[in-house]
Amino acid sequence: MRIAVCVKHVPEGPSRIDPQTLRLDRSGEGALNHFDANAVEEALRLKGDTDTEVVVVSLGPQKALDSLRKALAMGADRAVLVSDDAAVGSDLVATSRLLAAALERQEADLVLFGQQASDADGAVLWAAVAERLGRPVVSQAMELSVDAGSVRVKRQTEFGYDTLEAPLPVVVAVSDAINEPRYPSLKGIMGAKKKPQDVLSLAEVGLDPGDAGEPGSRTTVLALGDPPVRADARKIEDDGNAAQAIVDFLAEKRLV
Amino acid sequence: MSTLVFLEQHGSELQKGSLGVLAKAASLGDGEVAAVIAGENARSLAAEAGKFGATKVWICEDGEAAQPLPQPRVDVVAQVVADGGYDSVLFANSVLAADVAAGLAARLDAGLNWDLVDLELREDELVGTRPALQDSVQVEVGWKATPRLALFRAGSFDATPVGGGDPEIAQVSPSYAPHSTTVKLVGQDAEESSGPSIEDADVIVAGGRGLGSPDNFTLAEELAKALGGAVGATRAVVDAGWYPYSAQIGQTGKTVSPKLYVALGISGAIQHKVGMQSSGTIVAINKDANAPIFEFSDLGVVGDLHAIVPKLTELVRARKS
Amino acid sequence: MSRPSNFPPPFSPSDYVAEPSDPADERIEVGILIVGAGPAGLACAIRLGQLLEEHPETAEALGDVPVAVLEKGKQPGSHLLSGAVVNPRALHRLFGDRFRLDELPSYGPVTGESVYVLTRRSALPIPPPPPMRNHGNWIFSLSQLGRFLAERAEESGAMILPETAAQKLLVSHGRVAGVRTGDKGRNREGGELGNFEAGSDLVAKVTVLAEGTQGHLTGVALDRFGLSGEEPQVWELAVKEVWKVAKPLDRIVHTMGWPLRGGKRYREFGGSFIYPMGDDMVTIGLVVGLDYRDASLSVHDLLQELKTHPKIRRILAGGERVEWGAKTIPSGGFHALPERLHAPGLLLCGDGVGMVNVPRLKGIHYAIESGRLAAEAAFRALQRGESPASSLASYDEAVRDSFIWSDLHEVRNMRQVFGHGFFVGGALASAMTMSKGKVEVGKLPAEPDADQPLLLTDRDRSYPAPDGKLTFDKLSSVFASGNKTRDDQPNHIRIERRVAPEVAELWAHMCPAQVYEVGAEDDDGTVIVDVAPSNCVQCGAITAKGGRLTPPEGGSGPEYTVT
Hints:
The complex is a heterotrimer of chains A (256), B (321) and C (563).
Chain A lengths: L1 E5 L2 E3 L18 E3 L1 H14 L5 E7 L5 H10 L3 E5 L9 H13 L5 E4 L11 H9 L3 E11 L2 E8 L2 E8 L2 E5 L11 H7 L4 E4 L12 H4 L2 E7 L8 E4 L4 H11 L4
Parallel strand pairs in A: 1-4, 1-6, 4-5, 5-11, 6-10, 7-10
Antiparallel strand pairs in A: 2-3, 7-8, 8-9
Helix pairs in contact in A: 2-5, 3-4
Chain B lengths: L1 E5 L2 E2 L2 E2 L1 H12 L4 E7 L3 H10 L4 E5 L9 H15 L3 E5 L2 H14 L3 E5 L1 E5 L2 E8 L4 E7 L4 E5 L15 E4 L12 E7 L12 E5 L9 H11 L2 E4 L1 H5 L20 E5 L5 H4 L7 E6 L12 E4 L2 H16 L1
Parallel strand pairs in B: 1-4, 1-6, 4-5, 5-12, 6-11, 7-11, 14-15, 14-16, 16-17, 17-18
Antiparallel strand pairs in B: 2-3, 8-9, 9-10
Chain C lengths: L16 E2 L9 E2 L2 E4 L3 H16 L1 H6 L5 E4 L14 E2 L2 H7 L10 E4 L3 E6 L4 E3 L12 E3 L1 H14 L3 E3 L4 E7 L2 E7 L2 E3 L5 E6 L3 E3 L2 E4 L6 H9 L10 E10 L7 E6 L12 E8 L3 E9 L9 H8 L3 H7 L3 E11 L11 E2 L2 E3 L15 H20 L4 H4 L1 H8 L2 H8 L3 H5 L7 H9 L39 H6 L13 E2 L3 E2 L1 H10 L5 E6 L5 E5 L9 H4 L3 E2 L14
Parallel strand pairs in C: 1-11, 2-15, 3-4, 3-16, 4-10, 7-18, 16-23
Antiparallel strand pairs in C: 5-9, 6-9, 7-8, 11-12, 12-15, 13-14, 17-20, 17-21, 18-19, 19-20, 22-23, 24-28, 25-27, 26-27
């Protein structure tokens, strides 16, 4: 079996948005998005001691290789990075197009995503990628097993827990409750460099510059501002009626 | 402008979040506002959509859409967008809706802005507002082409009826993509009765060192129970062994954004703040008037929580019954 | 009143020496193992890379991984902190003509220099000391320089292993065989979590310890091989911040005096530095000798107080703090150097063994030079196929012949004259004249910092209440160091937890990261010290003042970027 895990190299430390480009400043240090570590871990658990191949796939700048290497150090077998200046500033439409193109070539039975990207707070990528790949998708997986050509997933929704089954090939997004990612062993870290790492351009995944970056995107960022100050913030001293004042406040906000 | 709102149903009810989005769309007052409901009982729920501003409701009661799964809904909504010529499609965030919105974005190559908290019509252009970087900045976003897809943060708009009349009802029965119908729901369990988990709770009551002793965590627990919420703790009290690490909220614990966060005896050090600052409403009770938490709470109460909280719990219980 | 040394920590260096215990096929073998990706360790790796490139046959003999560098921080630079005004001579010697100085990530050469003696409200300029003492020196962020050196080291073939702590020294048949790395994934009680990963034996032909100040295995090795020098090592604590500023600073600034007190009984020696970092950033730090006696002294809070001085306020006006950090500096000088810098299979470099010129506050170029010399000694020994047990003595010879030795020897008595001050000769003399004797100097015998008797004043009443803009509380500072240490790790700090109240107060104020708090009092008058180890930024102050820092799980601690 082949499992492809989509991972992202995200900025570390205090993030800021560049006021010129209105995009997240990715010039500093970065790391493997910690939610994606859950997806890598799940792939490695499914792999176990079998000859299942785990490929990590990412879209990003050259230094995203650092995060891919971390996944290799954890035990993934191969890494593929799509890196092209033309892809900078890609929104969901463009990113999903690029990732789907990269994933097509991998012909993976199972494609895994993490719960969200810590930089964009988005929890939407996998459904768009699954649509482009023409595959079923199951998200928020807290338990995952593969058996006889299909997956079985337990997931949590607002209403409780669902158990779902879907045939391979499938896309599954795992929640951070699914596992505790392993620490790479020293041997793993040392062996990571030797594992295959391919860096591909847009052309090498069959796309044109117009499919990515700004031209390939359908949304824009217009302006950056300060968050709204908590309007009507109040501070009171307890004169014996604080409890009632709190209830009144909550009632006003329809919280109780 | 003509807008389509995805209404989510669960059981025999329409979800309040999506009705709130519908009411918001109606309030923008520009062009037609329609809704789409897919699932069993869709027809019986259509009238309610009218009350919140939909003049037309598309319903799909196909067997393929019977289970609460996203992909058949992508087929349904795509068909409605084509049939109705809608230029905007709005969703209220949920596990289901997020997957529908994203799948639709890929299906139609349409721009999707998510985590929005507001929407405005500015000179014929739709402008969305969303927080970013753990709610430390606010960003305005737009769309370069139609259809425009928007996914709103849960609870962004109140579901206030606008007093609309009966909507026109249209049936839709799309052809389903082969991959849309292969996922099967084989089991369902209701929420565990021990209360919501911290990550999903709408209400969290968190305790800090100001509680004074581990026994006083019962104050937080009782209040949480009364409010139907979960109990959280600061790093300081978890370190001291007063409460388990699984309840720790903060930089090195969990990050939460419930609708209501009640902070008892918590000073508001930045390590804690970054774990809960995007909560909808923050109420803090602390006897130190200079506690940093008062700088970012909506209601700050300077007082003795040991006196205030039991009374508060009683009042909340009384209100609920 | 008690001294901290009355309450020794539950720590024994011999607990951290072990024979290799992993089965042979699980042991990881490298050629030369360097512990610490700081300027010393990376200079060693870079020099080795140069030598191995010229001598590929030696490289072959070192196996798959000829050079490995262990780093306990998240990445090289994460635990590096200094001023820093660097003497470029060692960088020139290391890089030769491969890099020009302006190709390194610096903030340019020093363009001007001022020294002030401060009082609460005034700043008395001292006539510039011996002409442009820092003329020819360059301003760097050590953290950034570390990242640059790490990239060069990797390019030259070294394998850098971040997030890896060296926990034990492997010694076999009286010879250092390598290190055992620390476990990961243990909980506070020491039990194994779901993702527990045991440490490994990393064996090497030569081990170079370049751990920096309070190096854990360096201390263990000095004890194991009886290498300690004639005088005990002593330290200073430096706490600093990096600020974005509205107005460029056009010179480096050093201050003495306020907020430190001149009285002899306080023994408060030190001063501050304010260096420009380009046009839009400035770094400001306060350095205080850890032989101070007032248990209510907090270097962190004195730095906050310093910032309220009108002159300093003006420099920072309109600005914003972007990073904070703390680290100790070994200040024993020449007499505290170990009597030997090598042992069978082992070489010792840099701050770990106290190669710091205290009056000039310079140590980075000695670290780099010592790393370079260690590389040459190790290489020569391996090239000749000599058993490393016998051949590393050439390192000591090389260090004694180098400017490290001559510089440190030259200022060996300055400590007597300046205590822990920064400035050579005329500077202090001028200071004494101009300040009308406010700056005191006395004869200072060397005693361990933890032996200093304590006194308690109400000094903490003058620490400013944090306003979140100019002044900050300790927890905000810890946040600004990038520290996100996992909370449920085992406690890596060894201290006696039941102590005299003044010792608990000492630690609580001393620690810039608020790790220690005075806890419950007991009937016998002692108090319990509460410890929050995940706040720790591994500055090492506790080791100087009665406790012992050991390395926590690899990857923990601060994540400095521009310190």
